[in-house]
Amino acid sequence: MSYKAHAASKQSSYTPQAVRKRTAGQLPLRTMNLRFLSRIAFICNLCLLLSWPMRYYSFIHDHALQSTIIITGMVLSFFMNGLVNILYAVLLIRKKRLTAFVPVWLVTINFLFLIFQLYIILFG
Description:
Layout: H1 3-12, H2 16-22, H3 29-54, H4 63-93, H5 104-123
């Protein structure tokens, strides 16, 4: 194979059609990162729901698990949920469809938890 033929075959594999064919069915990395962060924020928010009644009584007897849930819920959930909602706002400002990146139910729940967390910060 000559150099020109090799270069021509190499260039043809990078055409937009070839790239679309290779990545068909795969999500872009940016989409997967936002979806992953949204899921992590959701898990942290669930830990917040679990840690809120732990302030008054303990119903988990494993102290390592209990401390993990409390730290994840009371500390990490505020940062993760704030970050995720800021990213949602950036996408909306850029006029991107948010539903193309993250399911609607996950966006809604994370936003409702953000309102709950703001209530905790301001009045709790």
